[in-house]
Amino acid sequence: MTTYQEFIQQNEDRDGVRFSWNLWPSSRLEATRLVVPVSCLFTPLKERPDLPPVQYEPVLCSRANCKAVLNPLCQVDFRAKIWACNFCFQRNPFPPSYAGISEVNQPAELMPQFSTIEYIVQGTFPNTGARVMLFIGGPPTQGPGMVVGDELKTPIRSWHDIQKDNARHLKKATKYYETMANRSGSEWTQY
Ligand SMILES: [Zn+2]
To answer: Which domain of life does this protein belong to (predicted)?
Structure first.
C-alpha cells in the first residue's frame, strides 16, 4: 500500500518536478489565501531514456491566454475529435494531422506513462517570455560546471580573481552554463 506521500515522491523522482502544492486551489478566493504561491522546482534536462523525444510540435489549447499543451489529463472525445483543456476547460478540435486518432490509436502525449514529455522542435514558442529560477546552495565542486575543487584548503575564487582572469575552472564552467542556458532556452519545451 502506497501512502500519498510515497505517491508524490515517486512522481517527483519520475518527472524531476516538485510542486509547492499538489492540488490547484478550487477558487479565486482560495488562491488568494495561499500562504505559499503555487510554484514548482523542476530539473532541467532530466534524462528519461525510457521516453524518447517526440518529433512533432505540441498541440496547444486554442484559448489565447492559456495555450496549455495537450497532456494525459485532458478529457478526449475520440468520436468528435475534440479535447478539453484541463486548465481552462476550453474545448479544442484536434489538428487535421490527428484525424486517425481513436481509443486504440493515441498519440504519445495522451499516454499516462508520458507524464513528462520532450519536444525537441526548435522555436516552438519564439519570443514568448518565461522565467527560470535556479536555487542552489554552495558552489559546484564536481563535473563540467565546477567552479572550485572539493578540498577545503582550496579557497573559492574571489571577484578579483575573476576580474584578473585568474580563476581556475571559470572558462570551462562559463562555457558549460552558457551551453545549457542556450539549450534550455531554444531547443525544447517541457510540461
Ligand atoms: Zn486551456
So the answer is: Eukaryota
